[in-house]
Design goal:
By secondary structure, this protein is mainly alpha-helical. Helix content is about 55%, strand content about 0%. The protein has one domain: Orthogonal Bundle (Non-ribosomal Peptide Synthetase Peptidyl Carrier Protein, Chain A), CATH 1.10.1200.10.
Length: about 80
Amino acid sequence: MERQDIVDTVKKFILEQFLPGEDPDELTTDTPLMTTGILDSLATLKLVTFLEQEFDITVEAHEADAANLNTLDLIADLVDGKL
């Protein structure tokens, strides 16, 4: 799977689940998600579950933090590294 496909898939999920009605162009690959409150703890759990099911990967508990999930770029890096 191409990295851009990962970004597009995750972006679509985040827009649908956590930012309904928002302008998709406003969510860039470097938009902070966790540090701005777009992803709270429950949303992060939902995102991790989505990533595990969509990409058939396992996200360890210590990986579910801002260092790996704060931007679309970081999320794509995490997923790409596990594929």
